[in-house]
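Researcher: Quick sanity check before group meeting.
Model: Go ahead. Protein one:
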Amino acid sequence: MFSVDMRTIRGTTWNISQTGMQVEVFGLQPGNVVQLSFRLPPSRESIDASGGVIWVGENRQGIQFKKMSLHSQGLIREFIAQVEQ
């Protein structure tokens, strides 16, 4: 789920790293500041972060994380390590 300009919208995550994510969300523009809330499989813990839209392609957008708790950073790190195995 994404919040931008007082709107809440849902999208699909295609790629995630420690520094950002690639998403498919209608209506994001470069420079938008977004609030993110998402879960990584199979975790039930919600990750909340803020970020900025740094690029927009035909169907997807790139978001760079700006602010996130250390706990959430650890959840992403663990998820990436599991996927890479």
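Researcher: Fine. The other one?
Model: Protein two, sequence then structure:
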Amino acid sequence: MSYTVDLRSDTVTHPTDAMRRAMARAEVGDDVYGEDPTVNQLEAEFAARVGKGAALYVPSGTMGNQLAFRLFTRPSDVVVAGARQHVVIYEGGGAAGNSGVQFHTVADDDGMVSPDAIQWALDAMTHHHPRVGLVCLENTHMPANGAPWPIDRLRQTTRVAVDGGLPVHLDGARLWHAEVATGTTAAEYAACATTVMCCLSKGLCAPVGSLLAGPVDVIAEAREHRARLGGGMRQAGVIAAAGLVALRSMVDRLAEDHRRAARLAEAVAERWPGSCDPATVRTNIVTFRHPDPHAVLSQLDAEGIRAGTIAPGVVRLVTHHDVDDDGVEHACKVIATAG
């Protein structure tokens, strides 16, 4: 059948017409040699946006996160991270396979990690616990309804890590959503971390690609690790051109997605009281609990609406550029009669 509303993820968007035109005329070169001018421009603009010395274009956000583990840890190290973060759950165990590290997971029910939790991991090293090599945080926090970090809380949490001599990696796959929702700039958020990763394909409509930014020497080493992981790209300016359009013109409009997600959250809370708190939906993600997600997804599917799950009993709806107000209202009507 023909699906009219795809709420599975904000990665399902199609490149905009402006992106397609930019891709068609992109100036290119061999990026492995550092000779692709469009990639170089994208990396420079991103680094400036997040206030870092340099940036590296990578095929995916997962690779950007995995590079951080390679940069800052050694085999057998512990990475402190929230129990529901992307790096812990949704990267196929890559941290162990690629870097030989393990996670010390801490509570992140509201999407945040407490300073005390990090301090405990640091103190535990003096009691024969494994060495902590890195703290990793996520902003926005996807399973917590895309919760953005309040900047003061992020500063308090990362200060404990920095004072303990630990690097901090910020998984900012949807950092632009946090920027728009809170008014805190990406650079202010990134200042709390040693490295920051952002996706161009989540919400911004670019067809592929993410960026990792940090100090110049760190990113130079990341480029070497990217090659080892098979992430070296050649005439990548063809896709980087879409990323430039994304950075320059697609961030401000994320407010529309946030408004539409709030409408969906209201519909979910009305249909299944207690399953979702609309007050916690500040960006573009709605998650809710249901005893039979398969039944809900089947009913939505029958009405031309695609959705998905992120854990047993947890349904997710994600708004994005390719879902307009009419699509959201259609989804709300179907939700109102779903089982």
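Researcher: One line on it for the slide.
Model: The chain is about 45% helix and 15% strand.
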